[in-house]
Amino acid sequence: MNCPLCSQPMKFHYKGVYNRCGVTDYNFSLIKCDECDFLASDPLPTNEVYPQSRDENNAFQATNTEVWNQKLLKRVRIHKNSGDLLEIGCNSGDFIEMAKGAGFNVQGVEIDDVAAKAGD
User: Fold this and answer.
1) Is the per-residue pLDDT at 105 higher than 90?
2) CB neighbour burial string for 48-75, b if at least 16 within 10 angstroms, e if fewer
3) Residue 24 has what pLDDT?
4) Which of 1, 6, 13, 26 has a CA positioned 20 to 30 A from the CA of residue 58?
5) Rounded distance between C-alpha atoms, residue 51 and residue 32, angstroms
6) How is the chain split into domains, by residue range?
7) What is the DSSP letter of 8?
8) How far does the chain reach from its first CA to its final CA, in angstroms?
9) What is the DSSP string of 17-55?
């Protein structure tokens, strides 16, 4: 796979299993672009695998992601300790708020409008 930002080849970086936020045994890999440090999940999760963050009344349903976000920030810091950070699929923005507090210049995007509005 080529990097969607700089078109250079991406390489295997990390393999894991995700078991949080209503998702069970989601096997994924992180692939990394050595040119621009872009990280991506492979395969990309879908709403069938990773449900939208809303309850039966279409209200945002928060989950405690602090421990996961701390681990993710630690992994990001292997590559950089500051600078620009874009999270695609940021949900309500808990991770980008944590990264901002750690000195990163952050931006997030989210297609689930209910989750995105909860992060405003």
Assistant:
1) yes
2) eebebbeeeeeebbeeebeebbeebbee
3) 77
4) 26
5) 25
6) 1-51, 57-120
7) P
8) 33
9) EE--TT--SEEEEEEEETTT--EEEESPP-TTTS--SB-
